[in-house]
Amino acid sequence: MDTPAWPEPETTTETRFPTDFVWGAGTAAFQIEGSTRADGRGVSIWDTFTAQPGRIHGGDTGDPAADHYRRYHEDVALLRSMGVDHYRFSLAWPRIQPTGSGPANPAGLDFYDRLVDDLLAAGIQPWPTLYHWDLPQPLEDAGGWPARDTALRFAEYAAIAHQRLGDRVTAWSTMNEPWVAAFLGYASGQHAPGRREPAAALAAAHHLLLGHGLAATAIREQGTPTIGITLNTQPIRPNDGTVADIDAARRVDGIRNRFFLDPLYHGRYPDDVRADLAGITDLGFVREGDLPTIAAPLDFLGVNYYSPAWVAGSAEGIDPRLLEPDGVGADYVGCDDVTMLRGTEDRTDQDWAVDPGGLTEMLVRLAVDYPGLPLYVTECGASYRDEVGSDGTVRDTDRRAFLASHVRATHTALRAGAPVKGFFVWTLLDNFEWAYGYSERFGIVYVDYETQARIVKDSGHWYGELAKTGVLPATGSE
Fold first, then answer.
1. How far apart are CA 358 and CA 306, in angstroms?
2. How many domains does the chain divide into?
């Protein structure tokens, strides 16, 4: 896991990106749409999960979210006013196919039809993601992602969506963060459907990857779109140079990064990871032909980045104040004995570590270890306690500084040779932030959840100017 050296970030002079560099903003259907019972939409695992007491902070649910289902025209106008010309959003599977199989719901397809037309009329390129965690509940009742049939159903859904929108949408992402869907959903239970079955989580991870490959094949049978997948890859840093810490980092890196990257790029699961997991599963769910399907050629890789992870082989001798709250790597299957560390003193208001150098590190590593593909930073952002001032503005200086440092880190990776083609801020709108409910705000647009009024934050104005010019001013003049 040696990381190549890269240039120091440029801070004293302005930073210029290539003229064809993509600037966008991202959202996810369940987090912003609301209207979860409207126009024939089916029930998703997140509808079921949020209805269970104690699962979500404050007992929040996916309604009304940011009411985007009814206010999409207003939100497209916001994007246009800011000058952001690429929009990454997800399609809600249960809105298009309410039970996860069978005929499409015309009203669901009509909504995305209108959204795509609205975006194009505004000069904004649509970048849809087919799956951002909202599995139709009937498919979960039949076994969920640990069941192979779910991957087959996903390919059918992908074909339906592409057949309707593919005449206008050219760039598609099949999956968003399959690591989260598999391991937070089926191992730690922090996310829907809330199961704690490590062996099932590994089967889910494989079937998510298989679903990606099958969906890519199904879409390409209908045309020649640009197809990618979005992973939340993460630098894994050992606490020090001890054998135990280095091996802990290897194991966590294996299940967080290489368990997904190696099948996609090389058509195989890493030998060391298979050995690490031998006591949990023999990977008997991998059938002949699966890995070539998963390794079907990609046109791009989406990279979601928030922070690295710091790990130790043991908590012995470590100041308890340096430990992450849960202290152990329970989110990483097979790594329950690994100690997780806080890493940096610079934290977001959500208490996530701030480390822009980790983004450079990850992009350069991908370029070296998994070469040949365009890379897009498809999520990067931070939650801070935003408030509307007496003058009606939201002066989120912390978020603006966070984004500037990470945009600069992206440019540093470019200078080091990483083929980075775009940056999508997370997120356009304050929204339902999964298990955190509405307690965290990531948006560059403030949403008043009682009135649904929108206010472009200072970070939104700043990001829009960056999107229009492709120029990041020198530090101190931003």
1. 9
2. 1
Query: Which single residue is written with the structure tokens 């902070």?
Result: 57
Collect all residues with Cβ–Cβ distance below 8 Å to 217 and sequence separation of at least 6.
155, 293, 296
Residues annotated within a binding site for substrate: 31, 132, 176, 306, 426, 433-434
Nearest alpha-carbon partner for 360 in 3, 1, 17, 15? 3
What is the pairing mode between strands 309-312 and 236-238? parallel
Residues noted as catalytic: 177, 379
pLDDT per residue as tens digits for the range 271-314 = 999 999 999 999 999 999 999 999 999 999 999 999 999 999 99
The annotated binding site is made up of 31, 132, 176, 306, 426, 433-434
Q: Which residue has the tokens 């993509």?
A: 22
In this model, does residue 2 exceed pLDDT 60? no
Q: Which domain holds residue 346?
A: 15-472
Kindly report the CATH number assigned to the domain that includes residue 417: 3.20.20.80
Q: List the one residue out of 29, 364, 47, 397 whose CA is nearest residue 194.
A: 47
Would you say the pTM of this structure is higher than 0.90? yes
